[in-house]
Amino acid sequence: MAKFSPLPTTPDDSQPSQNNRQRRRKRRSVSMTTASAENYKVGPGRPPREYQFKPGQSGNPKGAKRKPPSLLPDLKRLFEQALSEKVTLRQGEKERTLTMAEAGIKQLVAQFAKGDRHARRDVFAYAEMLGIDLMSNHRTAIEEALASDHQAILEAYVARQYDKVVQPSPVLAPPELLDDDPQDQDQS
Fold first, then answer.
1. By the 8 A CB rule, do 102 and 109 touch?
2. Residue 98 in contact with residue 84, Cβ under 8 Å?
3. Which of 107, 103, 108 is closest to 84 using CA atoms?
4. pLDDT for 94-118, tens place per residue?
5. Residues lower than pLDDT 70 in the chain
6. If we measure between CA atoms, which residue out of 65, 67, 105 comes closest to residue 83?
């Protein structure tokens, strides 16, 4: 490859060093393209020059396919609208206007009170998420219901469960009942 000496700069050049670099690059690229065109070998991963992308040309001119718009914002908006709709409920002879969300929560609590296991699961989950203590108003009633006989039943249950988890220490026989005969121990 031939080396080119830098051209002398003229006093009117505002950026003499940059102009020199650009000229050198142009000369190198011209000489490299003619030299490399002769030595260029076509093969795997090296397509012929006429089929290579031109500088500034994209390999995918149409671009990537657009993603379909998300349904999540629309679903969220529709859900919020449905929950905020007003509904008139009749309780006996009295009519009340509530939102759907309020009516749904009241219905969930009513099912919970009837003993529905799914409603119980949901009420406990919502109470935990919202930080509501369901037992705060009922602690004294629960403590009064657990009388001394109930407490004894609970303690017996806990003792039984404790024995399942913790192995009791082995009971040792008194020394007079122990067999000291070494011959019997070898046979067994």
1. no
2. no
3. 103
4. 999 999 999 999 999 999 999 999 9
5. 1-37, 146-149, 168, 180-188
6. 105
